[in-house]
Amino acid sequence: MPSEEEGVVRSVTASLGTPAGLGVSSQPTQEDMPPAIVPIRSSGLSTYLCLGQLLSRRPTLELVLIGLTPALTVIAFGLLLRNMILAMFIMHAIMLLGPTVYLIGNTSIRAGLRNSSESTPFHWYRLYFSSEMANTSNGSGTVFLSLLSFLVTTLCGSLIYLMLQCSGRWWQILCIGSYESQLDIFGLGGLRHAPLLLDVLLALYFIIVNPLIEEFFWRIFLVKELSDSSQNSHMGRLQQEFSPVPTSEPQDKMAPTGGDAELDIEVGAARSDVFMDEETARSVSSMVASISPPSPAVSVSNSSRLVSYSETVNWVGSALYGSYHILVVWALLNSLPYAILAFILLVLVGRLLIFIIQSEQGPNATISGFCLATAVHSGLDTVVVFALAAALRIVEVKGDNTSVVSAAANAGFKFIKKHYIVSSMYIIGLIVAVFGTGFHVDPITAARYHKTLDHVDLVQGRQYRTVVQKLDRAERDYYNSWFSCNDECQANYRKVEDLRDQKAVVESKIYDLQLDARKTVGLWSSYAAQDMRKDFWDSWNAGKDMASHWTLWDTLFMAAGGDSRDQTLMSMILQTIFQYIMNLTVGLIAAIGAFLTTVPQVIASYGPGFIEGTLSRKSSR
Question: Where, by residue number, does the polypeptide cross the bilayer (predicted)?
């Protein structure tokens, strides 16, 4: 006769083993149970709880080990092999492959416990980045704040770096000094003699790609999954789910009503004589939480958001972020105090970046926190690039103490002073093009505009489509005739001409309706700005596609040519990249030219709006 404790365990494991995540079975078999649970009758419920506690620590331990892999990579490839560039590339590969392997492996365990679309490996991340892209594309606030954050971070970081040089009397204690010899030891000295193009490509990679990978790894994946594996923040909800439930309820009343998004388990339904007290409920909830750790609290309407994380998880993620930087700073500066100071500062910076990402979340968020954090990170990396370039004397012009950046800046200031009108108009045009949204249209005018567009869609959907289909059939009948055109062929030709005239009439009607709709809102309205911006980006994308096609053919001819045998793989890759940059430049210039040819037509199509009409009325008086 099984004990009461074994009956409770059987009921829980049987309900977990059913396809829907719920179920009632008085005699569960070993095949019905998840692979992680194997009943041991002799040891009772305590064996299951020990197994659950062991499994509950395993995801957190795995995530901590994944968070320490960048530091281990720096030790292996940076300190032992003395190649920091190779260590960076391998670290980035681990930051992409590690989360992928973890998510696929961890989701394969959850798939047996849940029957939900959220059990796919990257479901949550797809929703999150979709919402971030939506916030970025909805308005210019994200772009403006990201650019401003990048500039402020770069400026502040550059000032701090200059203050830490050994030129001031008050900063001798914090003086960095020369670290050029350390750069030579750890493989960065070779950049001094490398081609300038390779140095520029590495700098762009470090400024653009490195922040994207690190922000995803440290602030998105690691913090989210650490919170996901933590039991403390979810024990209250699980205890509420496993509160004492009377077993006299009918079985149909115990069916889940919230869908498959949440694991709903009714305990004590397998046996009518079992009543779960509070102590047993806490034990079973601990066991179930260890088998299927719940996700962070995510709202149903906006499930892609990071909603709440414990402060401990945030600081652990920040500490792991600073763990590998302490090795890099210690190796390159050869100073343990600076390494410790850098660790403390980077932990604080990591916590700040987590705050930026988590503060711009929720259904009312309008900007992308991920873009803001990436912009701040990119600004810090820009300071590092200029510091390394200055230490290696890469940006210095031979025979002169001024750098290329300083020379370019001086030339730019001279041009602005000489041609201040053109420069001012150019800057104003850039600001208007990027941040200009047009004047707001009142609701009545907007309603008339949308009503006219609906009429355009109706005409285009019915009349135009019908005429095009008839014309297509008539042209086929006409072109399928023999060499000589008989009476039937002549009739088909006349039919084709009539249908072409009808098509022209419908197209003219559609164009007139579009003109009426555009003249309703005017040239300076938000609708005109959206149409102009859409035409620009369509031309821009066409130029990029043209450059991609040209580069494809250039690469094919390069590989088929006889000179490719004498070239190395790296030289061919760099040549292809350089060729793509040239093709992209030509393609974008052509796209801008094509866009400029369409601007007068777009302006004429909107006709006189509110401002133009007001000016014309005043001039007529």
Answer: 61-79, 85-105, 143-164, 194-213, 313-332, 338-357, 369-392, 420-441, 580-603
Structure tokens at 581: 């940059």
Distance from C-alpha of 449 to C-alpha of 455, rounded to nearest angstrom: 10
> Quick one: average pLDDT of 515-541?
81
What is residue 439's DSSP assignment? B
Specify the number of domains making up the chain. 5
User: Is 364 part of any domain?
Assistant: yes
- What spatial distance separates the first Cα and last Cα of the chain, rounded to whole Å? 105
Residue 279 contacts residue 3 (beta carbons within 8 Å): no
Half-sphere CA count of 66, side-chain side, radius 13 A:
26
Residues 6+ apart with CB under 8 A from 195: none
594 and 505, same domain (yes or no): no
SS3 content of the chain, % helix, strand, coil (to 5): 75, 0, 25
DSSP 440: P
* Claim to verify: residue 225 and residue 238 sit in the same structural domain: no
For residue 297, being part of any structural domain is answered with no
Tell me the three state secondary structure of residue 396. strand
Euclidean distance between CA atoms 498 and 383, whole angstroms: 69
Residue 200 and residue 577 in contact, taking contact as beta carbons nearer than 8 Å: no
Per-residue pLDDT, 141: 67
Q: Note whether 132 and 197 are same-domain residues.
A: yes
Rounded CA-CA distance 149/145 in Å is 6
Alpha-carbon gap, residue 152 to 589, rounded angstroms = 31
3-state secondary structure 158-180: HHHHHHCCCCCCCCCCCCCCCCH
- Asked if 309 and 361 touch (Cβ cutoff 8 Å), the reply is no
How is residue 83 written in tokens? 């190649």
- The token pair at 87 is 């260590």
Q: Give which of 248, 218, 232, 369 is closest to 290, Cα–Cα.
A: 232
Contacts of 327 by beta carbon, 8 Å cutoff, 6+ apart: 71, 74, 75, 78, 79, 339
Residues 214 and 236 in one domain: no
Residues 208 and 354 in one domain: yes
370 and 446 housed in the same domain: no
Q: How confident is the model at residue 362 (pLDDT cuts 50, 70, 90)?
A: low
Nearest to 266 by CA among 463, 22, 84, 473: 22
pLDDT > 70? residue 397: no
- Evaluate whether residue 66 is within a structural domain: yes
User: DSSP secondary-structure letter at 368?
Assistant: -
What percent of the chain has pLDDT above 90? 10
Within 8 A by CB and 6+ apart from 518, the residues are 527, 528, 605, 606, 607
Q: Which two tokens stand for residue 405?
A: 């950046």
Instruction: Determine the structural domain holding residue 413 and report its residue range.
Output: 396-436
The pTM for the full model equals 0.50
Q: Is residue 57 classed as helix, strand or coil in its secondary structure?
A: helix
CA distance 363 to 333: 45
Per residue in 563-611, pLDDT (tens digit) is: 656 667 777 788 888 888 888 888 888 888 888 888 887 777 777 544 5
19 and 100 in a common domain: no
Q: Please check whether residues 420 and 452 belong to one and the same domain.
A: no
